[in-house]
Amino acid sequence: VYATPRAVQDVFRRHLDMTPMQYLWRVRLDRAHRDLIESDPGATTVGAVAAHGGFAHQGRFARLYRPTYGGSPNQTLSA
What we know:
Number of helices: 5
């Protein structure tokens, strides 16, 4: 199926109320959150989880993470 980039953006906005990039960031963030919950704090770091999730900058990861999950990535890892 051929669809223009604009058509794809419109479908995302209509059905998910977000852009394709926002959706991608959310999927990556959800995966990183799951990884933090399941990881052993003594065997991994927030930076490693962020990098595995596709976040090149740990600070940006933390800025996106806090408002979404109500705490820092470090708090989730150590919980």
